[in-house]
Fold:
Amino acid sequence: MKILVTGGAGFIGSNFVYYLLEKHPEDEIVVLDLLTYAGNLKTLQPVLDKIKFVKEDICDREAIFKLFSEENFDVVVNFAAESHVDRSIEDPGVFLKTNILGTQVLMDASRKYGVKRYHQVSTDEVYGDLPLDRPDLLFKETTPLHTSSPYSASKASADLLVLAYYRTFKLPITISRCSNNYGPFQFPEKLIPLMIARALDDKTLPVYGEGLNVRDWLHVKDHCSAIDLIIRNGKVGEVYNIGGNNERANIEVVKTILKALDKSESLINYVKDRPGHDQRYAIDASYISKTLGWKPEYNFETGIMQTINWYLDNKSWWEEIVSGEYKNYYDKMYSGR
Ligand code: NAD
Ligand code: DAU
Structure:
């Protein structure tokens, strides 16, 4: 099978490439990535001889059509996106362009060149949020879309477009909507790697509001195994929720990291809340479990310790990032908080 992995130099896409190489060494993999601030070719360095890498923008229709005409892909898995909520609040434009129009270009090329499966990697954020005082409520695939941030609105728009291409053009699509991922190679602007990197440097840890917002954490490898099952055995036209059943308040996560690193809780700094901050995400993943037999391998306690150890063992990967252009981003984004 020949698979195009877009956004394969980012966090989840690169983990997916490693997952495929291990689980399906017979597959041919082409990675397409624009290498924005979030993409890092160093992540794929050890396997560049086993895959083909193309630096390209998913919004560039001409380049994408040319690639599809040359490669004859069986499957497209679209991870390419602008993915950070805080950045979408600062500058929504690029989120609409990449996440919506880029998706359209990939689907148009998939239609024209007869791709057998187009898989859209979406997010639980398309469902909006759940109240903190109703632990009985979970997102199901049938939960109405109800977004909060420019990021989640762009992802929900893309989902609707993907479903429209299925209904109108019979494009063989699937969609997955996953909860918060953690694990190796996550860019240190997201909660877990940001807190690990800053705690290691004895810097303050910026916790939004009172730190009571809840996220449902899933190890990235479990996300990859779910997507792999969907592209091989999933039903065309379906949406699959993926989640870890590991709900944690942000402050609990931060305290777990501090304890594991033997750092003081006095590093915690409660800062101004994120505008429109979603309260709680929680996924009902029973449909993918029942229909495709998926179940997560990691629990949060062991997964987070492995992740902390990965960041300790791979300082050169993230130290370069936090000392470069990203430092200016951090100073700008957090100075008013
Ligand atoms: P990321 O920001 O780490 O990686 C995104 C990748 O896309 C980067 O390598 C970047 O260079 C590339 N990219 C951006 N714009 C591009 C363009 N125009 N053309 C080609 N490549 C481009 O993101 P991530 O956390 O790995 O998320 C991957 C996907 O999974 C996203 O679609 C995101 O919405 C979704 N998702 C993420 C999570 C999570 O917790 N991180 C959870 C559920 C769903
Ligand atoms: O649920 C899936 C989504 O998870 C994905 O679609 C997004 O791409 C991904 O970025 C993630 O979104 P979140 O907004 O939940 O992740 P983030 O790591 O930015 O924040 C997690 C929680 O931690 C959130 O409640 C905000 C809070 N937070 C975050 C940062 C960066 C802080 O308290 N301080 C911070 O500095």
Residues 6-7, 9-13, 33-36, 38-39, 57-59, 79-83, 98, 102, 121, 123, 155, 178, 180-181, 187 surround nicotinamide-adenine-dinucleotide (ligand 1) (CB under 6 Å). DSSP finds twelve helices and 13 strands in the chain.
